[in-house]
């Protein structure tokens, strides 16, 4: 059972049905707000959940102390922000609500209420047209199409949907990927690997789909995603062995050809401010960004601090 705010408990697998029921009624635009993503990152971010109004509040741990994610409520939005920040003021000197989308920001004049609205560019989601990433037509996608064609021509491979029988091989691939990139020397990659391990380990209990590529009977690439909205697929995982040029293009192409049918867009999440990743994501011609913001402030006008 999920308690009423202000009592938070760690997000657990048993909360999936309740949270997904809300998200089904109020589909999110942001990649963070799927149960799969929240559950995978729970041990790293310390996600905790409480009931509030017709939905939920989610709390996380961070380097600046606890913060809230955007309130998952469809009514009493300003109350949720006010009460959430009041709770945070008992926990930290820097109360903040993170990963807030544009539609939420537009629901009130937050600056008039004593809050600062900050754009969070590093966490913008990149959203692409599925048909463009499948067809790879035109000069803009010339290099990607060449890499894909070379891979298809040189390699005899098999694409398969991800199933529970392939999870052990997927975990081994994740371990190999991390060894190639020395994840133990990079905190961000190490944390990501923990989230990937959790997604794969609990794959049978999550509403996710995936795909793999095998060469000579060995799994060399893996991806995992799920429906975000009726017209948008989100990709949470994409891993490939580095010794096969064009393999990343191939796993993305194959997964979208098979799992992307019926979807107009694919959300490929954020770049986290990494220059190389930003350049790569921009090179795929995003149709648009899902802009995100942070709400900060020690008080809301009319409230005592």
Can you describe this structure?
The protein has helices spanning about 15-25, 35-45, 75-90, 100-105, 130-135, 140-155, 165-180, 185-200, 245-260, 275-280, and strands at about 10, 50, 55-60, 65-70, 95-100, 115-120, 125-130, 155-160, 210-215, 220-225, 230-240, 265, 290, 290-295. By secondary structure, the chain is an alpha+beta fold. It folds into two domains: about 10-125 and about 290-295, 3-Layer(aba) Sandwich (Aminopeptidase), CATH 3.40.630.30; about 125-270, Aminopeptidase (3-Layer(aba) Sandwich). The strands form two sheets. A seven-stranded mixed β-sheet has the order 1-2-3-4-5-14-6. The protein has a seven-stranded mixed β-sheet with strand order 8-9-10-11-12-7-13. The longest helix is centred in the middle third of the chain and has 15 residues, at about 165-180. The model is unreliable at about 300-305 (pLDDT under 50).
* Order of strands in the sheet with most strands: 1-2-3-4-5-14-6
Helix content: 25-40%
Q: Which structural class do the helices and strands define?
A: alpha+beta
Extended strand count? 14
Contiguous uncertain segments of 5+ residues: 299-305
Enter the CATH topology name of the largest domain: Aminopeptidase
Number of helices: 10
- The CATH homologous superfamily of the largest domain is termed Gcn5-related N-acetyltransferase (GNAT)
Shape summary: globular
Overall average pLDDT: 94
- CATH class membership of the largest domain: Alpha Beta
Write the SSE topology.
Blueprint: E1 9-10, H1 16-25, H2 35-45, E2 48-52, E3 55-60, E4 67-69, H3 77-89, E5 96-101, H4 102-105, E6 116-119, E7 125-129, H5 130-135, H6 142-154, E8 157-161, H7 167-181, H8 187-201, E9 209-215, E10 218-227, E11 232-240, H9 247-259, E12 265-267, H10 275-282, E13 288-290, E14 292-296
Parallel strand pairs: 4-5, 11-12
Antiparallel strand pairs: 1-2, 2-3, 3-4, 5-14, 6-14, 7-12, 7-13, 8-9, 9-10, 10-11
Helix pairs in contact: 2-8, 6-9, 7-8
